[in-house]
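Good morning C.,

I know you're traveling, so I'll keep this short. The sequence:
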Amino acid sequence: MEKMQLYPPGCRVLVAEDAIAGYGLAHPWKLHRIPPLDGFLERLPENAECLYVHDVAVLPDRRGGVARDYVAGIAELAPASGIATLALVSVYATRPLWEHLGFRAVTADGDLRAKLACYGEGATYMLHDLAAT
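The tokens, ready to paste straight into the viewer:
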């Protein structure tokens, strides 16, 4: 609920074949920083450098394009805010999906690696440069 109040345009219901297929949450954030896991944002940063895709969940029987459509919709929001990059943390072996959607893995420094550890093994910080597409 907090993310929807802080940045309503980034919070969307995902629809496939006229049925709810999942949801997506994104908000302005700072590059190479990760919002607190399982915590409140409290406020959005001034001078945001990216739109952070905080969560995308799709029902198993509805996969096949809704995540792509959500990323495309979020990418359309970025220019109005002077943002040219999307960011996320890939978890649960979803890295190939995000790579297919234009994200690339970023080598994490020590601080970022420590924060990624709480997301579980294989968590990867990824960026999508919108200017390159």
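Safe travels,
E.
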